[in-house]
Amino acid sequence: MDAMRPGQANSGYFGRVYDFMTSPQVGASQPGADNRDLRPFKETNRNLVRTIKWCGRLAISAYGIHVHIVDLPPTFTPSGERFSRQTFAYLSRLNADDVLHADIQTLDADADYSPTFYIVRDYVRKVVCVAVRGTQSFSDIIVDLELQTEEIELPQVQPTPGEEFRCHAGIWRAAKALVSPQSKLFATLRQALAENEGFGIVFCGHSLGGAIASAAALLLAEYFIPDGAEPDAGTWVTNMSSGLPARRPIRAVSFASPVIMTADLASRAALGSVPLVTTVVLGSDVIPRVGHGQVRELRRVLGALSRVRRRHAMASTEGSDDARVHILRSYWDWRSICRAEDADDVMLHRKERIEAQLWSLRREVESDLYAAIKARLDAESTASTASTASTRIPPSPWVGPQQRDQAPLHALSARRQELDTATLRSEAAQGGPLVPPGRCIWIHNKRIYHVESALAFFSLPELRSDMFAAHFPAAYEEAILELRT
Length: 485
Fold this sequence. Notes:
By secondary structure, this protein is an alpha/beta fold. The protein has 2 domains: about 350 residues, Rossmann fold (3-Layer(aba) Sandwich); about 130 residues, no CATH class. It contains 14 helices and 15 strands. A 9-stranded mixed sheet has the order 1-15-14-12-10-7-4-3-2, with helices on both faces. A two-stranded antiparallel sheet has the order 5-6. A two-stranded antiparallel sheet has the order 8-9. A hairpin with a 2-residue loop joins strand 14 and strand 15. The two termini are about 20 Å apart.
C-alpha cells in the first residue's frame, strides 16, 4: 500500500466543482452525443478526501437521529411523526428543498424488500446523489445474511480469459429492484437529471447501504475509453440502455462495505482515472473482512497454528515458558511493557524476546501453510502427463492471477491436502473469494492509503479489540472528520 498525501488544489471546504465532475462535455443527455467530446475524469488526492467527507456525511445522515447526538430543529408534527426529509437535510447540512426524495423502508412483511434512501441535488458539485441507508431493520439483516452468490452478466471492458463476475445474491437483487424503471428512485432520478443538464450521479452508503449503492452503480454504468486514451484512463458514464439520460458521469462511494463481489468484478469497478466504485475501510473494521472465503482461510491458518504449537509443546521441557505456545499471555505481557512508563532493562529485554518468539511463530505458521512442494507436484505431473485429470493442489485463492505462476502451494499432511484441495476447488467454482467492491481506500491513524491487492489485504479479519466498534457509523464519522484536506 502506498500512503496518499493531500495534493495542492482548490481552497474552501466545498471548493469548486470536483474534477471528476468538471468535464462539461460529459453532460450529453442524448444517446447520439458525440463520443469525441468525452474526456477522462481527473481527481486529485485533495478532491478525493473532500469527496469522502461529503459522501460520508450523506451516508451516515441516512441513518437519521439514531447515530447522532444532536439538538434537532422542530422536525416533528404535533402527532409525533418525524419529517424524514427535514431531519436528513439538517443532519447532512443541506437545504431541505434540495432533498428531492426521502423513501422510508416499509414494515409490511409481504412487501418486496426496498432499502431506505434519499435523493439529493447539489448545485455546487453538479450532481444528484443517492444516499442508501445501511442495516437498521430486520429486513436489512435478512439481506445481509444471504450468503449465496449469483453469476451476473456485464460487458467486459478488458476481455480476460476465464473472467467470471459473481456478486452477493441478496445485494444484487436489492440493487436491481432499487434502480428498476418501476421504482420510485428511478423516476425521481430521471426527472432530476433531465431538469439539470450536465449533472452526474453519485451513489453512497454505509455498510449494507454502501454495498447496494455499489451494485446499483454497476447496473447503470458503462466504461467509455476516448479515442487515443489508455485502457485504464477511461471514464464511467450512464449507459444508454438504463433509461436514464445517457453519458452522464456516475460513481459510487461506499463506506464499510461487506465483501460482495469476486476479485474480477471488483477490479472491473476499479478501472478508470476515477473508479466507478471507491470503498473506504476504517482501521480493523471486521465487516469488510468477513465472508465465506475469509472464514475458510481463518480455519486453515488456525489449523496450521495448532500444528505448530503442538510440535513445540511436545519438544518443550516441562515448565518452560514458551511464547510460541502461550500466545495470548505473551501478547498481554508485551502490551503491558509497551504501556509502562518506567520499564527497566529487564522488561525491555523481555519485550524483545517476546517479539522475536512471536515473529518466529508467524514464520513457522506461514511455512506450514505455504511451503514449497514443487518437487513432489512435478513428480505427480510427470507421472500423469497422459491423463487429463490432475491432482495438483490449486494456489491460494488470495493470490491474484498475475502472481499465481509463482505462488507457493500448501504443504500439509495427506488428509489436510485432500480437504484443502476440495476447499480451494469449491472457492474456484464460486468465482473465488469475495472482496469489497471497487478501489479500496484504508483509513489508519488519520491518513489514507490505497489498497493495491484487495485479495491479500482482506483475506483475514484483523483480530483487534476495536474490530466491531470500528464498523459503527459514528466511528467512520469521527475518522472522516479528522482527515486533512
